[in-house]
Design brief:
- The chain is mainly alpha-helical.
- 74% of the residues lie in helices and 5% in strands.
- A 4-stranded mixed sheet has the order 1-2-4-3.
- Helix 1 runs antiparallel to helix 3.
Length: 374
């Protein structure tokens, strides 16, 4: 396998730099939005108006949470449109027309809004009625929610955006079944997902939890990659299955969130109480402050969580190489992914440390080639 053509590598570097700038801008806007709502007194004014309009407190809270989520989504829409539609078309990665892209955005916003209202109501209810133990109870609720969403992803979440069906390429299916037998594992299904309706990019993933777990393969991967290359990519996903990485990440999210809630209880509430008070009639006015604190917390932990993810991905790579015994096919698959997805093979070190959930492709190729020589 040959390295990607110079123009593709140059485009990949330009695209990666653009996406890094978009990350910085979106993070800044995500922090500025709640800060402005708080400093401008907008949240306080809206909350006072809702209560003054005669709405019961809990219904007023539902409206406040919904208004906050809709306003935030609309504020970030221009940036999402530029990054998700304009840039993707500029680099010929997207096949979506604008109505289709906007429909996906609207579905994502509606889903996120519904979840935000539910978890927001649970937060305020627990804070009102179960103090001082609210934080670990809320951590348990959110952990159960993470597990539930992981379980229903193949049934409810993925079908909102893609069509998923059992893989019907019999030749490939036979080889993948042999690979599954060699790994000594079982999965519920190996499915194809219709990426080609929306993008030229290729990918594969393990989704679901327990009985719902599936390996999904983009149809663009099946169409563009050789059989040994597809086997290498699927073997990597089998590594996630064998290592129970989906469950491990759910547990990591639970620990991270519960730790943050503990900090909010022991450090945040004492600081918040003299500002707005902790009673239900007053506390929702501080919703922007709560959202701002949460975003700062998760941004601060991003390098650590991404480092853990890269460790899991590297372990899945080693599993794939041991399972297939074909370092050349793995390296070739990585090069083809880099070219087809316009992925930068060697990002700046700071970008890898801060943003990357996978090891850089150049490192994965070097590992596969060294494994092949050994």
């Amino acid at each position: 396998p040959q390295p990607p053509a110079p123009d593709r590598a140059r485009e990949a570097r330009a695209l990666a730099a653009t996406r890094r700038r978009l990350f910085v801008v979106s993070s800044a806007l995500g922090l500025a939005y709640p800060a402005l709502l708080w400093l401008g007194g907008i949240a306080q004014a809206v909350w006072t108006w809702l209560l003054g309009a005669g709405l019961p407190t809990w219904w007023a809270l539902v409206v406040l949470l919904a208004l906050y989520g809709v306003a935030e989504s609309l504020a970030l829409l221009p940036l999402g449109y530029y990054g998700g539609y304009v840039v993707a078309h500029r680099y010929s990665l997207s096949r979506q027309r604008l109505p289709s892209w906007f429909a996906d955005w609207a579905k994502g916003m509606a889903l996120g809004l519904a979840l935000a209202v539910v978890v927001g109501l649970i937060f305020f209810w627990l804070l009102e009625y179960t103090r001082p133990g609210w934080w670990w109870l809320y951590g348990l609720v959110l952990s159960a929610g993470f597990a539930f969403l992981s379980y229903v992803a193949p049934y409810l979440l993925v079908p909102l955006f893609f069509r998923m069906r059992p893989l019907d390429d019999q030749r490939l299916l036979e080889r993948l079944r042999a690979l599954l037998d060699k790994a000594g594992v079982q999965v519920q299904q190996v499915c194809s997902i219709d990426f080609s309706r929306k993008t030229v990019e290729a990918n594969a993933a393990v989704i679901g939890l327990g009985p719902s777990r599936r390996i999904v393969i983009a149809d663009t991967l099946v169409e563009s990659f050789t059989l040994p290359e597809v086997e290498s990519v699927v073997a990597h996903e089998l590594g996630h299955h064998v290592h129970r990485d989906v469950l491990r990440m759910v547990l990591v999210e639970a620990v991270v969130v519960t730790l943050g809630l503990g900090l909010a209880h022991w450090l945040g509430l004492p600081l918040l109480e003299p500002v707005v008070g902790l009673q239900l009639e007053r506390l929702p006015a501080a919703l922007p402050l709560l959202a701002l604190a949460a975003q700062v917390y998760f941004l601060a932990l991003m390098p650590a969580t991404n480092a853990l993810s890269r460790t899991m991905e590297a372990a899945a790579d080693r599993f794939a190489l041991a399972l297939t015994g074909d370092g050349a096919a793995f390296a070739s698959a990585m090069r083809r992914l880099a070219s087809q997805n316009l992925a930068e093979e060697q990002p700046p070190r700071w970008a890898e440390w801060l943003l990357y959930t996978h090891p850089p492709i150049a490192r994965r190729i070097a590992m596969a080639e060294a494994w092949g020589r050994e």
